[in-house]
Amino acid sequence: MTELTELMKKHVSVRSFTGEVIPEEDMTEILKAGQAASSWKNFQSYSIIKVRSQETKQAIYDLQQQPWILSCDTFLLMVGDLKRAELATKLHAEQFHADGAENLLISSVDTALVGQNILLAAESMGYGGVMIGLVRQSSKELSELLHLPDYTYPIFGIALGVPKRHNPAKPRLPLEAVVFEERYQEQDAQVIHDFDAVQTEYAGARQTELWSERIAQQFGAPESPVTAEHLKQQKLL
Ligand SMILES: Cc1cc2nc3c(=O)[nH]c(=O)nc-3n(C[C@H](O)[C@H](O)[C@H](O)COP(=O)(O)O)c2cc1C
């Protein structure tokens, strides 16, 4: 065990903030720690829109009404970005092919790794926050609001601030349900029932539906076409 692994294991999303400001030098440190994440061939296929003005936070909140977008100190929009790749490619090649599943994975993974580094760095300094992927429901409007050009797309936001309250850490699946020795092991529904019970005990009276019911809501119907439509518009699909 190290201080770092202890910090990582204590992670909990924070959705309630005191309103105190994160000093600019702390924010710079957090962002630099984010930048240090591994990156596909070091292409660094992401950009971050740092939003601190209440006016812009309000405009984002109007698109995706999660109260922590308004109450956080800083909202970071994590953007998958192949726009710089266009600039580089055009220096050396006639054509630029940004679209496709592999390229989407490259930029999405790079962006996610930076985002996770940012959240952990913030937590290590006593701040807290939550990732906000539901902003993708308004990808088009958000991209217009924040002037995202072709070859870029919003992946998730991170609301950061000084925590007012920490919920107890959420349970995770047992390690052996997600880590397999040497080869993949198919599981039966018992693993789902068992974790439903764990999650139900954790959530207590706050629980409105089973963990597995939430999964079924997501995957029991075709996904909303909004994200794919926007990715096509941005020339990424
Ligand atoms: C990519 C991503 C998007 C997320 N989007 C949202 C969101 O839109 N709203 C929200 O309240 N939490 C969001 N979360 C937070 C998750 O709900 C949270 O991480 C999960 O329930 C586990 O809880 P914990 O982070 O407290 O351990 C998101 C997390 C990830 C990784």
Question: What this model shows, in words?
Answer:
It is built from eleven helices and four strands; from the N terminus they run ααβααβααβαβαααα. It folds into two domains: 3-169, NADH Oxidase, CATH 3.40.109.10; 170-222, no CATH class. With 237 residues, it is an alpha+beta fold. 25% of the residues are buried. It has a four-stranded antiparallel beta sheet, sandwiched between helices. Bound molecules: flavin mononucleotide. Residues 11-13, 66, 130-134, 156, 170 line the site of flavin mononucleotide. Flavin mononucleotide is lined by residues 11-13, 66, 130-134, 156, 170. This is Nitroreductase. Belongs to the flavin oxidoreductase frp family. Keywords: Flavoprotein, FMN, NADP, Oxidoreductase. It comes from Streptococcus moroccensis. Residues 9-161 form the Nitroreductase domain.
CATH class of the largest domain: Alpha Beta
The number of distinct β-strands equals 4
- CATH architecture descriptor of the largest domain: 3-Layer(aba) Sandwich
Biggest sheet, strands in spatial order?
A: 1-2-4-3
Helix content: 40-55%
- Provide the low-confidence segments as ranges: none
- The CATH superfamily label of the largest domain reads NADH Oxidase
The proportion of residues in beta strands is 5-15%
Number of domains: 2
SSE run: HHEHHEHHEHEHHHH
How would a textbook summarize the main sheet?
4 strands, antiparallel
Structural class by helix and strand composition:
alpha+beta
Q: Which of globular, elongated, flat, extended, rod-shaped describes the shape?
A: globular
The total of helices stands at: 11
InterPro entries: Flavin_OxRdtase_Frp, Nitroreductase, Nitroreductase-like
Keywords: Flavoprotein, FMN, NADP, Oxidoreductase
Family: Belongs to the flavin oxidoreductase frp family.
Domain Nitroreductase: 9-161
